[in-house]
User: What shape does this take?
Amino acid sequence: MIVITAPTGNIGRHLLSLLLESAPAHDEELRVIVRDPARLPDAVRERAEVITGSHGDAKVLDRAFKGADAVFWLVPPDASLTPRDAYSGFTRPAAEAFTAHGVGHVVGVSALGRGTPVADRAGLVTASLAMDDLIAETGVAYRALANPSFFENLLEEAGSIREKGVFTDAAEADRRAPLVAVADIAAVAAGLLLDRSWTGTDSVPVLGPRDLSPDDLARIMTEQLGRPVRYERQPLEELRTTLVGYGLNEAFVQGIADMKRAKDEGLDAGVARAPDTASPTTFEQWCAQTLRPAVLS
Assistant: This one.
């Protein structure tokens, strides 16, 4: 039995599709935890057991983890909380439930940065790494998917790209860093969940096929969209003021700013790309398949 949390999110929906396709051949049963089952595709509700509720709720987890062999763990960041509460606080009931129900394997969504000089002052990433430690302390076999920023973050900029030909971030325009498609993260997670021959605790970097700078992204988007796209760097203090103005928790906003500052200082540069850490989807492919329809709709 594999339990999937956050099955309607960007990574979870890709993972579910892969597992629904592959689980029968591996003689695996699937169970999902979801707040609103109506958001699940009919095929999921027909072929997977559905547990309704939040995976931060101990009572929900007690039902969901009963008889489970493996769990896909993804924390939906709650911007009303501090980073520590949003990650470790949310995960603590699950850590207790892993032990109580004898869950053997957990695959979690985490971040790059462990072992780098800025890892202890990287805001949301620091909180994510602390969550990994909390899970590892349970003794479960654990694989933390160590991810850089996602291509999909640019979907938040689709309106600005459409209307003004501009996207923004806090990074230096020429700073290259790894970027990854969420579908590639889901594919790595599916492989680990279906072949549970691994033991102990480790991280699994998923780095995308190559490093890209904001200027590289602008050039590729211009080519793929057939219209000029340029990058504007946003000062961190301006970003912080904007997010606080939206009503987000100030500590969480500071966690975002600290993460972005750390990324600009090399947080994501601690792992070398190799055949086993690269993932296949190029930014060009992602633009054509995902960004272009969002911008031109």
